[in-house]
Amino acid sequence: MSELKDRIEEVKASQNWNDTQMANAAGVNRSAVAQWAGKGSKIIRTIGDVEVALNLERATGYSALWIAKGTGPKMAKERIASEFWPFASIDDRKVRALDPARERMQLEAAILLAAAQLGLDVKKQDGE
């Protein structure tokens, strides 16, 4: 298991990100990223907020668990490779890169339309 600071530097380097860009992707402030990287007076050894780790997974493809704790497969794709994904022709990297304000909504609409044509109910229920 590697140190959090090493994992953070690897993820940042893979995306050509600075601390601010990583903070924006993770949904935290820049000082949190500095602490993860061992640059502040307070050194953090794990990312305890699951949502923060998942934000980084969605933005980079690195596994949230690997980023946060240094365990499990490094890449999220390796973790979910055996799970059913009915859209094999869709590049998951392109999906992650979508502009959440526009293209993501178009993709969700297309998925809902395709599911409806197949008779699948994939809409969320109220309260989910």
How are the SSEs ordered, and which strands pair?
Layout: H1 4-15, H2 19-26, H3 30-36, H4 50-60, H5 64-69, H6 76-80, H7 92-96, H8 103-117
Describe the structure.
This protein has 128 residues and is mainly alpha-helical. It has two domains: 4-79, 434 Repressor (Amino-terminal Domain) (Orthogonal Bundle), CATH 1.10.260; 84-117, no CATH class. Helix content is 54%, strand content 0%. The chain contains eight helices and no strands. The protein has helices at 4-15, 19-26, 30-36, 50-60, 64-69, 76-80, 92-96, 103-117. The model has no long low-confidence stretch (mean pLDDT 79).
Question: Summed up, what is this model?
Answer:
The chain has 128 residues and is mostly helical. Helix content is 54%, strand content 0%. The protein has eight helices and no strands.
